[in-house]
């Protein structure tokens, strides 16, 4: 149900922008929780959601997608680009460990190479329970 709601929201966003005569471009990074608190079935649902998203948008709009899985340490699984094959998510495996959402968000900000002049978004797929520091701290100068 949640997956259908998220896809519906994104469909409405792109349809409204398209109806207004605006470009339907976007850079979207999926930040995916692969910590120990995530069940294997939930992780499979998250992978299916990302695959369904590609089926709906990437081939008909200028949508670039990136994937950053995270647990104790975030990593780049797929850099921002325009993938055409939803099977790219098949190799994404659940790692276990602590859920550090704040660290994953900072990593996303620092490593995602968004295109200039294109709307950008990060979609965080998680159970919502962070096990690390959650306050954002500016790095020292």
Strand order of the largest sheet: 3-2-1-4
**Structural class by sheet pairing and helices:** alpha/beta
Number of β-strand runs: 4
Q: What is the fold named in CATH at topology level? A: Rossmann fold
Topology order in helix (H) and strand (E) letters: HEHEEHE
Q: Give the domain tally.
A: 1
- Global mean pLDDT: 79
**Main CATH class:** Alpha Beta
Walkthrough of the structure:
With 141 residues, the chain is an alpha/beta fold. The chain has a single domain (2-7, 30-125), classed as von Willebrand factor, type A domain (Rossmann fold, 3-Layer(aba) Sandwich). Helices cover 34% and strands 20% of the residues. The protein is built from 3 helices and 4 strands, in the order H-E-H-E-E-H-E. The chain has helices at 2-19, 40-58, 101-111; strands at 25-33, 62-70, 78-81, 120-125. A 4-stranded mixed β-sheet has the order 3-2-1-4, sandwiched between helices. Strand 2 and strand 3 form a beta hairpin. Helix 1 packs parallel to helix 2. The longest helix is centred in the middle third of the chain and has 19 residues, at 40-58. The chain is globular, with a radius of gyration of 15 Å. The model has no long low-confidence stretch (mean pLDDT 79).
Feature tags:
20% strand; 141 residues; Collagen alpha-3(VI) chain-like; Rossmann fold; signal; vWFA_dom_sf; 4-stranded mixed β-sheet; ECM_Assembly_Org; globular; alpha/beta; 4 strands; VWF_A
Show the helix and strand layout:
Elements (H helix, E strand, L loop, with lengths): L1 H18 L5 E9 L6 H19 L3 E9 L7 E4 L19 H11 L8 E6 L16
Parallel strand pairs: 1-2, 1-4
Antiparallel strand pairs: 2-3
Pfam family, one: VWA
InterPro entries: ECM_Assembly_Org (IPR050525), VWF_A (IPR002035), vWFA_dom_sf (IPR036465)
Keywords: Signal
